[in-house]
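Good morning,

Attaching, inline, the backbone tokens for the sequence recovery test we're adding to the shared suite. The designed sequence is right after.
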């Protein structure tokens, strides 16, 4: 009975959100790690790259970003004429906080010859000190776009950087940051699950440590994982990323077995936003995320270069 009441309440809240979305000419963008009830009410769910592209192309007046702070900032960088709402302003990313603009500026001052590639999981201030941004979906493309004669410095994720270095001939050094969720996955945990499911395909996110990636059958972003599971003839998959991705995977693949590499891979920051928060944000048109124009213009160059590379173009460093 309680479950039925909860389902009815959830449906009622979702209907109110959709009503407000129409009234405000808004669009809801949700990351693949968001709670199921938020993914289900969103206009688009995706990884950071997909959401960035959608934000840059939308004709909506308002973007409700269900994710964490740097994602809303990226939308503001790309869409200065839009109102960007982040229903829970304190939803942050621990990895993004591991590098500051001040620190990166000092590195650039000491080593001005470096090409700085920053993961999109960074603050707008850090992006403003960056040559090109990247996501887990396009990092190899971005790295390979750099002149082989130049040295690359990647920030903040050491695991993504080591993955890129292994899959490219470019010279890459990196900052010692990481995603606490992905970095916690161990080879021992993976081997235990693989032993229990010997026929399963192990999919790992490039934010995982190198020794975990060495065990992977496939290394992909969340959207890459989704596509692979949908297209594969295999029936069992071990999922090496935040467990939120299992919701859209199971909806798209009801006959397939999806096993978390670690069921405790939960990003609490990604779970902060509720349906009630979304209704409040749409009613009040707050909290708004607005990147200051001087920072926005500097950061936009790095994001635009990334999007151009993803579109199959090549843009030289300024």
């Amino acid at each position: 009975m309680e479950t039925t009441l909860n389902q009815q309440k959830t449906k009622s809240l979702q209907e109110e959100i959709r009503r407000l979305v129409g009234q405000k000419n808004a669009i809801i963008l949700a990351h693949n790690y968001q709670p199921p009830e938020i993914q289900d009410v969103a206009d688009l769910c995706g990884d950071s790259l997909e959401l960035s592209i959608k934000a840059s192309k939308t004709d909506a007046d308002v973007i409700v970003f269900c994710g964490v702070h740097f994602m809303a900032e990226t939308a503001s960088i790309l869409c200065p004429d839009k109102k960007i709402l982040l229903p829970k302003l304190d939803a942050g990313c621990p990895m993004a906080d591991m590098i500051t603009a001040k620190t990166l500026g000092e590195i650039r001052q000491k080593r001005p010859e470096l090409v700085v590639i920053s993961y999109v999981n960074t603050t707008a201030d850090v992006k403003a000190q960056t040559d090109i941004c990247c996501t887990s979906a396009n990092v190899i493309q971005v790295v390979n776009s750099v002149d082989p004669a130049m040295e690359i410095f990647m920030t903040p994720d050491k695991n993504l950087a080591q993955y890129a270095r292994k899959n490219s001939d470019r010279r890459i050094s990196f900052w010692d940051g990481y995603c606490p969720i992905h970095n916690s996955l161990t080879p021992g945990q993976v081997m235990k699950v693989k032993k229990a499911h010997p026929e399963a395909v192990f999919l790992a996110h490039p934010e995982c440590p190198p020794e975990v990636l060495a065990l992977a059958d496939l290394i992909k972003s969340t959207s890459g994982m989704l596509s692979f599971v949908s297209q594969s003839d295999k029936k069992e998959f071990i999922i090496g990323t935040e467990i939120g991705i299992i919701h859209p995977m199971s909806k798209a693949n009801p006959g397939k077995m999806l096993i978390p590499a670690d069921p405790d891979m939960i990003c609490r920051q990604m779970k902060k936003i509720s349906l009630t928060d979304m209704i409040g944000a749409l009613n009040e048109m707050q909290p708004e995320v607005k990147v200051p124009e001087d920072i926005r213009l500097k950061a936009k160059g790095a994001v635009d270069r990334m999007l151009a590379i993803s579109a199959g173009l090549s843009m030289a460093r300024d």
